[in-house]
Design a protein that fits this description.
Oligomer: heterodimer
Distance between the termini of chain A: 47 Å
Order of helices and strands of chain A: HHHHHEHHHEEEHHHH
Strand content of chain A: 5-15%
Strand content of chain B: 15-25%
Mean pLDDT of chain A: 91
Helix content of chain A: 25-40%
Largest sheet of chain B: 7 strands, mixed
Low-confidence stretches of chain B: none
Shape of chain B: globular
Strand order of the largest sheet of chain A: 1-2-3-4
Strand order of the largest sheet of chain B: 1-9-8-5-4-2-3
Structural class of chain A: alpha+beta
Number of domains of chain A: 2
Low-confidence stretches of chain A: 1-5
Structural class of chain B: alpha/beta
Radius of gyration of chain A: 26 Å
């Protein structure tokens, strides 16, 4: 006798209890604290903040703990929380030229005003497992020096003075930047919406697109004009005050990619820009974003759009890992009604083919 | 019934968001079958789990509504249970599994077998709202095609099926024309359900969360499944009835009962099957009603 399988509330509750147990792991091992994640898994926290589009290291660390370290699941948790928050104010554009940089490099000039600052980077480490970390260790204090008085102008602005690079086009007075979280994505999207989409986009997907364009499926020939990582002040102008006040600081990674451009009928030969910006410290994402940004500007420079990384609908429609992960994994939900339709179909088609064959043999 | 969780607004969404969604719904009702872009929110359930339907339900549900949620026609599938619970928690509304008693029905992949009435709203969860997507992937193009009612590609697609295989092989998400104008994806319901959409007395609302589209079929609106004069639209049929309730007029699911080819067909609409068995109908594999609760 057949009794229909019940999904049932009990099954869901039990699954959730098992999940909590699996998350905790061996109870003999001390519980991981959110502060530990925030302080020692900083790059994971930064990625969750960037793609979750919410600057809150504590909540990002909590999300990582709850998600058992799964970045995309943690990003989803942060997004679902973020969407419930009221919009209290819009900040002024942050001034990355006044960033207190902990790292700042340019691959296009040997020396630059303000200097190159290597900062905390994996770049020149030897990737050898450090077994000393197995037992826990406290690293010796790193050398430090007081910040110099010298300003740190953006490298692209230095080129800009000679007119060698396209000018940054400021938004028209009174123009409001688009916001994907408050308006549906529509095509063609403006560069503001494209950049927001890329900033929230999956790091792996954006990296893959940038890589494809570097390998020849695209036409960017980028130089890392400048990458800087550091904190900037966030200012708002409260209506009742009428002047800007600082409401906090955020850490950002900014990348300005410089690409060649041979000129067109309307534009002289000059360098062009690709821009990347992320919350926290994430150079890989910022650089990939900058390359894809430039790649998507093909129309502006009369470049033929031939490759995926140049195709706005392809790129922007598929960057969001919360959407992608959900839609992919919804295949786990029951589809037996549709599948039954396909079964009925394929059986009918097979019957038709078989009877046609029989007829052929009879003839 | 659980009391609504504190900390969130009634039915989870804030009132501003509900207003935005209601505006989209009003536009959708005014232009039947037209896909209205809306600023879909991130929901606490994953995309693909019915976030569009949930947002539509959240925007139209009231404290005096009675909600029914089905997935694959069944009230007891895990996702239906999960969504029903979500609204029990956040809106504290009454829920039911009985089609007739519900004022609001959220569904994935089915239309209930019982005829719906004017007092009811049917909310569909939609994965891909664009019926032309498989012929033209670009949104910028498909929107133009809808605007110009340029639907040749769809007819060519259906014709190609006939040319290659002798029949239209689309078995679910079978395209329809609404009110003689827009071609619309009915969501992945089996084509068996398509005729129920035609002039349905209930309001039909469609929510696609990931794709951020809402569309609608107002009550008593003409909904035609696309076909050709010499290849008229037809629905699925089975040679046997439901093994439990004996119904021969309902959509059947195939249940594999062993690994030797054994299988049985049962109603996909669990409420329909229960009601029939309560009324004394039975199929070849049914225990007397009440002995083995389904």
């Amino acid at each position: 006798m057949y009794v229909a399988v019940k999904g049932g509330e009990a099954a869901i509750d039990n699954a959730h209890a098992l999940l909590a147990e699996a998350r905790r792991g061996d109870p003999a091992v001390p519980d991981l604290t959110v502060a530990q994640i925030r302080e020692q898994m900083t790059l994971a926290v930064d990625r969750v903040m960037a793609e979750g589009s919410l600057y809150d290291p504590d909540l990002a660390a909590l999300a990582l703990k709850q998600a058992r370290g799964d970045a995309v699941e943690a990003i989803f948790l942060v997004r679902a929380f973020r969407t419930t928050l009221p919009r209290l104010a819009h900040s002024l554009p942050v001034e990355t030229g006044e960033m207190r940089a902990k790292r700042r490099i340019s691959a296009t000039f040997k020396d630059i005003p303000g200097g190159q600052i290597l900062g905390p980077t994996f770049d020149y480490t030897h990737r050898l497992l450090d077994f000393a970390l197995l037992d826990g260790e406290t690293p010796p204090a790193a050398a430090s020096a007081a910040a110099g008085p010298e300003a740190m102008p953006r490298v692209v602005d230095i080129l800009g003075r000679e007119g060698l690079i396209e000018a940054d086009r400021p938004a028209p007075e009174g123009a409001e930047a688009g916001d994907l979280t408050r308006a549906p994505l529509e095509f063609p999207a403006g560069r503001d919406v494209r950049l927001q989409n890329l900033a929230r986009g999956d790091e792996g997907f954006v990296l893959g697109l940038a890589y494809s364009s570097q390998r020849g499926f695209g036409s960017t020939h980028p130089f890392a004009g400048e990458i800087r990582v550091g904190t900037v002040e966030v200012e708002i102008v409260p209506e009742e005050l009428g002047f800007p006040i600082v409401v906090g600081r955020v850490e950002l990674t900014e990348c300005q990619m410089i690409s060649q451009f041979k000129g067109s009928k309307t534009q002289p030969p000059q360098f062009t820009r690709g821009y990347g910006l992320t919350f926290g410290h994430n150079e890989r994402k910022a650089m990939a974003m900058a390359i894809v940004d430039r790649s998507l500007r093909a129309d502006e420079f009369d470049e033929e759009r031939r490759y995926p990384a140049q195709d706005e609908e392809f790129v922007l429609g598929h960057t969001d890992n919360v959407e992608a992960s959900g839609f992919l994994q919804h295949l786990k939900l029951p589809h037996y009604v549709d599948f039954q339709g396909e079964l009925v179909n394929i059986r009918a088609l097979r019957r038709a083919t078989q009877s046609a064959r029989k007829q052929e043999t009879a003839e | 019934m659980n009391a609504p969780d504190t900390g969130y607004n009634f039915a989870y969404l804030d009132e501003q968001t509900k207003r935005m969604i209601r505006r989209a719904i009003l536009k959708a009702v005014a232009v039947p079958g037209y896909q209205v872009p809306f600023a879909g929110r991130e929901m606490p359930l994953p995309y693909g789990w019915g976030t569009g339907g949930i947002q539509v339900t959240a925007a139209v549900i009231g404290a005096d509504d009675t909600l029914k949620v089905i997935d694959q026609g069944a009230d007891d599938t895990t996702n239906a249970v999960s969504i029903r619970r979500f609204f029990q928690r956040t809106a504290g509304v009454a829920t039911t599994t009985e089609t007739e008693k519900a004022t609001l029905i959220q569904t994935r992949h089915r239309i209930p077998e019982a005829r719906l009435g004017e007092h009811q709203i049917l909310v569909y969860q939609v994965p891909i709202p664009e019926p032309l997507r498989w012929m033209e992937a670009r949104e910028s193009e498909t929107r133009k095609m809808h605007a110009l009612a340029e639907y040749g590609v769809m007819h060519v697609r259906l014709y190609e099926d006939i040319a290659h295989m002798g029949r239209i092989v689309k078995s679910y998400d079978y395209p329809v024309r609404v009110n003689g104008r827009y071609i619309m994806a009915p969501s992945p319901i089996p084509k068996f359900d398509n005729p129920k959409m035609d002039r349905m007395p209930a309001l039909q609302l469609f929510g696609a969360g990931r794709e951020k589209r809402i569309y609608a079929v107002p009550p008593y609106t003409r909904v035609e499944s696309l076909d050709f004069e010499d290849h008229p639209f037809e629905i699925q049929t089975w040679s046997e009835g439901c093994a439990l309730c004996g119904a021969t007029d309902s959509y059947l699911d195939e249940v594999v009962t062993d690994d030797r080819g054994g299988r049985m067909m049962v109603c996909s609409d669990t409420d329909h099957c229960d009601k029939r068995r309560a009324a004394g109908h039975s199929g070849p594999m049914a225990a007397p009603y009440g002995e083995t609760p389904r």
